[in-house]
Amino acid sequence: MTRIYVMESCPDCVQAKQQYGDNPYYEIIDIGKQARDLKEFLALRDNHPAFAKVRERGTIGIPCFVKDDGDVVISLKHYLASSETASSETASSEPEYTSGAACNLDGTGC
């Protein structure tokens, strides 16, 4: 099962939840709802090499996909590109979200 770390107020995460929320092969973990889940995500973010550039940029690194094999993919776009199960139909049916919506203080994404 792929675990997806999200936060309700993140536009990219809302899109990921819409894409995978009803799929039993994915577990959605909203890090804004339980302190334990936030701590779990922060431990991953602070220690996993996949987050090196995220830490350098000072961004959050969500949505974050943790695959069964431990591989970590940050961002829905990269997950779709790396996923063996992603089809052109899935990619083309991505939900739209408000243009300009962002999590970063400078307004450049999440």
- Global morphology: globular
Q: Specify the structural class.
A: alpha+beta
**SSE order, one letter for each helix or strand:** EHEHHEEHH
CATH architectural category = 3-Layer(aba) Sandwich
Number of helices: 5
Strand order of the largest sheet: 2-1-3-4
Largest sheet: 4 strands, mixed
State the end-to-end distance. Answer: 24 Å
Number of strands: 4
Note down, in words, how this protein is organized:
With 110 residues, the chain is of the alpha+beta class. The protein has a single domain, classed as Glutaredoxin. It has 5 helices and 4 strands. The chain has helices at residues 11-20, 35-47, 52-57, 76-82, 88-92, and strands at 2-6, 26-30, 64-66, 72-74. The protein is globular and about 35 Å long. The model is unreliable at 85-100 (pLDDT under 50).
Which structural traits does this protein have?
alpha+beta; Glutaredoxin; four-stranded mixed beta sheet; 5 helices
Give the SSE map.
Elements: E1 2-6, H1 11-20, E2 26-30, H2 35-47, H3 52-57, E3 64-66, E4 72-74, H4 76-82, H5 88-92
Parallel strand pairs: 1-2
Antiparallel strand pairs: 1-3, 3-4
How would you briefly describe this protein structure?
It is built from 5 helices and 4 strands; from the N terminus they run βαβααββαα. The chain has 110 residues and is of the alpha+beta class. It has a single domain, classed as Glutaredoxin, CATH 3.40.30.
